[in-house]
Specification:
Elements lengths: L12 E2 L6 E4 L5 E5 L2 E2 L4 H14 L4 H16 L5 H7 L13 H16 L9 H10 L3 E5 L6 E4 L4
Antiparallel strand pairs: 1-2, 2-3, 3-4, 5-6
């Protein structure tokens, strides 16, 4: 049995509980399990940590793309001006390529356009880099998911 320590008071967390959240035996702080994975951040702390960004940056990049894509698609589909507007307003448009509803075409266009416009800010990591991070933090029994999207490991408290 692996014992976890509370990040707040450093006392043992009750891992025997079958409840949806585990509880620190000392300070009673609760940690929820999401799909069997413990989340060691209290809900309030998690939301509070983002509240400054959410208040300051009201429109996220994705929201901007969501407002931009529908009208850009309409312009880009126009026979006479479409060739020009496609250069000015690059948007992924799957109309005629996949049997999707208009709503789904817009959704795919928004998500894929966002993915195309944000690589400048994105950073990908190799599996070896991620495994090195785990090892550096003392994890063992490191496993890579079959789709290379997930990595898991175990860390024993000393």
């Amino acid at each position: 049995m692996i014992n976890f320590l509370c990040p707040e008071c450093k006392k043992e967390i009750d891992c025997q509980s079958k409840r949806p959240a585990l509880e620190c035996t000392n300070c009673k702080l609760q940690f929820e399990k999401i799909n069997g994975v413990l989340k060691f951040t209290a809900k309030a702390q998690y939301a509070d940590s983002f509240s400054t960004e959410w208040t300051h940056f009201r429109k996220t990049q994705l929201e901007i793309v969501l407002s931009y894509v529908p009208w850009a698609i309409k312009l880009n589909r126009q026979p006479l001006i479409g060739r020009i507007t496609r250069q000015l307003f690059p948007v992924i448009d799957y109309k005629g390529r996949f049997p999707l509803s208009d709503e789904m075409l817009i959704e795919w266009a928004c998500l894929d356009t966002f993915d195309c416009l944000t690589p400048k800010y994105a950073r990908t990591y190799t599996v070896d880099e991620i495994i090195a991070w785990y090892k550096n933090k003392g994890f063992c029994d490191i496993k890579v998911g079959k789709h290379l999207v997930s990595v898991s490991g175990k860390k024993f408290l000393t």
